[in-house]
Amino acid sequence: MSEVELPVAVDAFGGDHAPVALVAAARKAARSGVLVRLVGNVSIPGRRRTGGLSVIARGNAFPADATPKSIRREPDTSIRIALREVAEGRASSVFSAGPTGATLVAAVLELGILPGVERPAIASVLPRADGGRLVVVDSGANVDCRSEQLASFAVLGSVFAEVLGTAVPRVGLLSIGEEPSKGNDQVRSAQQRLVDAPVNFVGNVEPTTALSGGCDVVVCDGFVGNIFLKTVEATAETVLTIARRELGREPVAQVAAWLLQRRLRHLRNRLAWEATGGALLLGVKGVVVVGHGRTGPAAAAAGIQMAKRAAEDGLVTAIEQRLGRALGH
Questions:
Q1: Domains in the chain: how many in total?
Q2: CATH number for the domain harbouring residue 159
Q3: Same domain membership, residue 123 and residue 80
């Protein structure tokens, strides 16, 4: 069986609304033609295999406050079993909306890290004002980072942007100002590391610059990156809510709102995490898509589709090859 014919392994206990939302998402994805393997000790009505959905009824959830040590001691949790399906060639990829830190540690344990990677990171993709795409890395996997790790994220993000089609990605370091003197100790110490890294480093960038087209990749630690993403999502939702309220004040404006509602909905979907379903964990030897903790059936189904496409496109092989060239091995 080739990789594209292998199922996506879905962690049934990942997320705030698990397992109900993940079971519904797995069924939804299976009905759309995706081979799905649901992993977790959950009760599935009907036969153990229905259409494109199969079940491994083993594995429980990690607690939200799981530590790296406790994750290592628990090899039979649903996420580790799902990742093992990929490691042992029985699944093409994994989708989980469980705790990001637990997923990162479990992925390192079960899949291993690609050569030259300091530490895996989560890469999210946002639309830019100029029509391009902005890769945000790290967007939640590593809360506390050393400057060397930020340099490693820059290489991963640059390689990922190449895979997405940008020939020579411009890499910016997220800061509160463009001057080299701006930023905290972490940012200032990372600047020289990024200058020396095998990337096209364009210096510090502010959020406005990054989102308007000043770079193709923006680098930050997972704490800042996660806040950055959630702020973009919240701003889009707030602006659209205010626009609907203002457009609803007068009859003529209500007609305009009706005419614009499809485009406004499209804009919201481009910025909302529900539309893509998740983000990619880069740097491990397998495709892992990490969903939002609040994910529901529709968002999780989109994340499963993302995992399937990434596996079909040979994402990990492409990243490993480009990473090797960038680092000279």
A1: 2
A2: 3.40.718.10
A3: no
d(CA 81, CA 60): 10
From the list 168, 156, 137, 125, the residue with the least C-alpha distance to 318 is 156
Kindly list the averaged pLDDT for each block of 10 residues, start to end, along the chain of length 329.
74 85 91 92 60 79 77 89 96 92 92 91 92 92 89 92 92 93 89 91 95 96 92 81 72 63 61 67 95 84 92 90 77
Buried (b) or exposed (e) across 247-273, using 16+ Cβ within 10 A? beeeeeeeeebeeeeeeeeebbeebbb
Instruction: Give CA–CA dist 269/237, Å, rounded.
Output: 10
233 in the same domain as 162: yes
Q: Do residues 57 and 149 both lie within one domain?
A: no
Its domain, for residue 196, covers 118-274
- Helix boundaries (H) for the chain: 20-31, 68-73, 78-87, 100-111, 147-163, 185-196, 207-209, 222-247, 251-271, 273-276, 297-312, 315-327
